[in-house]
């Protein structure tokens, strides 16, 4: 076998070196991932108050930030955005939420119905993500028009206490015929 000329060997060495450096850089960026800090994981608020769900993140590049609300009734997406771009706010929270480039959101005029778990997920463009949870407790009078329930058994006296209990959804209508 004939040895390669010096120019060819150097060319392949540079290509392999560049490839190795590129792979190492990509691995380092990916292993760094996303870090997420939540300064206050539980928030107590009163009805009609504006509250800040505060977070801070760090990552390489511009991430995607997503907030979801979880309660006994299920999970609902609130908002998703990339810092510096327009936020995609769900119809249920239009005019009720503000976003910040640090990943925080503000809920305006909260009600008892807003009590629950708020989950934020920060995902960087390489795919790594981090999530955190903030628990919100809202106290005060119930929302206007919210259904109230009461149970009465035989008793000499009765005291009623106002408690917000969402009514279960009715079953789908079925034609009896």
Task: Explain how this protein is built.
InterPro entries: CD2/SLAM_rcpt, Ig-like_dom_sf, Ig-like_fold, Ig_sub, NK_rcpt_2B4_Ig_dom. Its main location: membrane. Can homooligomerize through cis interactions within the same cell membrane. Keywords: Cell membrane, Cell projection, Developmental protein, Glycoprotein, Membrane, Signal, Transmembrane, Transmembrane helix. The protein has 177 residues and is of the alpha+beta class. The chain has a domain of 105 residues: Immunoglobulin-like (Sandwich), CATH 2.60.40. It is built from one helix and eleven strands; from the N terminus they run αβββββββββββ. Strands 2-11-10-5-6-7 form a six-stranded mixed sheet, with no helix packed on it. It has a three-stranded antiparallel sheet with strand order 3-9-8, with no helix packed on it. The chain has a two-stranded antiparallel sheet with strand order 1-4. The longest helix is centred in the N-terminal third of the chain and has 27 residues. It is globular, with a radius of gyration of 27 Å.
For this entry, give a set of tags.
alpha+beta; 3-stranded antiparallel beta sheet; globular; single chain; 15% helix; Immunoglobulin-like; 177 residues
Tell the overall outline.
Answer: globular
**CATH C-level of the domain at 35-139:** Mainly Beta
The overall average pLDDT, rounded, is 77
- % residues in beta strands: 25-35%
Subunit structure: Can homooligomerize through cis interactions within the same cell membrane.
Signal peptide: 1-26
GO cellular component, one term: axon
Organism: Phyllostomus discolor
